[in-house]
Amino acid sequence: MTRFLGNRICVGLMGAALLLAAPGAYAADWGVGARAGTLGLGVDLSRSFTPFFNARVGVNAYEYGFDVDSDRIDYDGDIELDSYHALLDFHPFTGGFRLTGGIIRNNNQIVATGTATGGGQVDAKVEWDKNAPYAGIGWGNHTSGFVPLSFSIDLGVMAHGDADATVDSGGVPSPSRERDEEQDIEDDLSDYDLYPVVSAGLIFRF
After folding, report:
1. CA atoms of 92 and 53, how far apart (whole Å)
2. pLDDT value at residue 15
3. Which of 4-13, 19-28, 118-127, 168-177 has the highest mean pLDDT?
4. Are 198 and 37 in contact, with CB atoms under 8 Å apart?
5. How far apart are CA 76 and CA 178, in angstroms?
6. Separation between Cα atoms, residue 95 and residue 33, nearest integer Å
7. Which residue, 82, 125, 88, 89, is CA-closest to 105?
């Protein structure tokens, strides 16, 4: 009896492994996805060209506020996430695992209003490169799987370059102080030229 149960368990485990490794049984030409992550809330539209390659376009957006106190200026602002992407998913095993590369149209920015030491309003904006290359890995085939609905995960980086800060205080206290503040902001963000992209969501194939 013990040997019989052991054999059944081994057969079951082998069958599960084969299912995970095998190509998806449900194939479709198109897929749509919805997700949440470090680029905000997003949606995708995917098109299959071969069992190995899918093309994917999508949009991401979100906004949340923050407060930052510095030696000279106390800021109250918003991080505005706004981006579009065109990606190519390569599924080397025609299953869920994928390698992804492409371009992100990056409209992400930080907009803040501050109060300078000694009075006076300061408006600040931080932007990055508009066209940012993307590379990553993920799980979830947008056009092939065992059922029409499944999960999707993305892990990657967007190379959005160095921060570009603009500070406007209306000439008060002075234009040179504005430039000093811009340089301070850019220096604080100089180590973040690569933006981490992490997201999870759902895929519907049709």
Report:
1. 9
2. 40
3. 118-127
4. yes
5. 17
6. 17
7. 82
Non-local CB neighbours of 153 within 8 Å, separated by 6+ positions: 138, 139, 140, 199, 200
SS (HEC) of the chain:
CHHHHHHHHHHHHHHHHHHHHCCCCEECCEEEEEEEECCEEEEEEEEECCCCEEEEEEEEEEEEEEEEECCCEEEEEEEEEEEEEEEEEECCCCCCEEEEEEEEEECCEEEEEEEECCCCEEEEEEECCCEEEEEEEEECCCCEECCCEEEEEEEEEEECCCCEEEEECCCCCCHHHHHHHHHHHHHHCCCCCEEEEEEEEEEEEC
Longest dimension (CA), the chain: 88
Alpha carbon distance 100, 103 (integer Å): 10
Q: Name every residue whose Cβ is closer than 8 Å to that of residue 1 and which is 6 or more positions away in sequence.
A: none
- C-alpha–C-alpha distance, residues 206 and 200, integer Å: 20
pTM above 0.90, yes or no: no
Q: What are 167's strand-pairing partners? A: 124
Stretch 61-81: mean pLDDT: 88
- What is the residue-averaged pLDDT of the chain? 85
- What digits encode the pLDDT tens for the residues 112-151? 998 877 677 889 999 999 999 999 999 999 888 777 899 9
Kindly report which listed range (14-18, 37-41, 87-91, 179-183) carries the lowest average pLDDT score.
14-18
